[in-house]
Amino acid sequence: MPRNAQGKSVTTLPSLPEVHSSVAIPEAGSAWRKMVGFAGPAMLVCVGYMDPGNWATDIEGGARFGYQLIWVLLLSNMMAVVLQTLAARLGLVTGRDLAQACRDFYSRRVALTLWVLCEVAIMACDLAEVLGSAIAMNLLFGIPLIVGVLITAFDVLLLLVLQNFGIRKVEAVILSLVGTIGFCYVVEIAVAHPDWGGIGRALIRPTLSGESLYVAIGIIGATVMPHNLYLHSALVQTRRVIRSAGGIRQAIRYNLLDTIISLNLAFFVNAAILVMSAAVFFRNGRVVTELGQAYETLTPLLQTTVGHTLATAMASTLFGVALLCSGQSSTITGTMAGQIVMEGFVQLRLPPWLRRLITRLLAILPAVAFIAWKGNTGSYQLLILSQVVLSLQLPFAIVPLIQFTSNRKLMGEFVSGPGLRLLAWICAIIIISLNLWLLGRTALGLVRGGAE
Predict the structure, then answer these.
(1) Given pLDDT bands bounded at 50, 70 and 90, which one contains residue 5?
(2) CA distance 40 to 235
(3) 3 state SS of 27
(4) Which secondary structure element, helix H or strand E, spans residue 316, and what is its range?
(5) Most CB atoms within 10 A, among 3, 154, 206, 319?
(6) Are 402 and 424 in contact, with CB atoms under 8 Å apart?
């Protein structure tokens, strides 16, 4: 029986007990049938990679620095694949999610510290969903941002209604809507004729300046997302895996494929948004101060078919609908991540509506204050800041994840191999180094400002 940090034996209740082992995997049949059975967890995680925070960092990166930061987006996606693979492996092999593993094998003080830090990350992500949904309502219905933010407090009621129809069906609809906007951006690339040479040069000769560091770290936080590591380690346990060496090995293999496909789909959507932002804003010297401006990246495509005036209105509507769907789909997965973290770290189980309401209210307060102080421009900058906060929280999820999956006593024959461990630690070192660089520059700026 596993033992905790104090050497005592521990027992762990199933993660997400209401859906634990609820999806049967066919023991016989084609590889395609099995893949369909295993597919899903990474796709739900992938929803978080297309939330309003991602849109803000992609648009800001393209508008301010052209194609310069597309390599950061690619690197972030590669790191996400490695780390999400480890998260899935931890859940499948040990029967624990990352939060439960931290509680069982760290001291109580360390576990509680990690829990608080993870809750901060979830609130930062929820802040992006609040602002994104409010901006979408402003575009669609002309609702003032502050009013829109307050309305998002009641989306917990909408969530409860949607759950009656089944989360998977609802997620399929929302993913289709978000995929539609992604398809529009991909098609528009052919119409807008971006500088493919510039994109290639940015990928081959990556550069990062002090000015672009802040946005680059926001892109990393928006892509990797610490709470998604907790989420994925729990979602893979919804599959009824045969608890044998062969069954677990099969599950790891199919979940790796699920992760690669899902996260690369999200990468192409985010890359298309950044490329179009560079082609529409950076190329023309436009400065983006509000996320709502981003609908203009859809206008060139629609102008070719319906004319300028109607194109602008249609672009605004299409962007607003997709942004609203993005915020709501991320809300659902964010609620699940919050449940996993709270139950895993402190074994406190709250009704989903109460958990959601607490997190949402904690996100609404800074959103209202910032909008009242800075207006629409402030909401855009707050979106980007929320993703930087996610990046700063990443090491506190990544380091435990690497430690657990590298522990032979815990993982047995499925312990991470030397190559996978090396890749994981490289990811951790890159993220920690960039965070320290940003913190150092910020501290230096404060010192210089105080001296002046």
Answers:
(1) very low
(2) 9
(3) coil
(4) helix 308-346
(5) 319
(6) yes
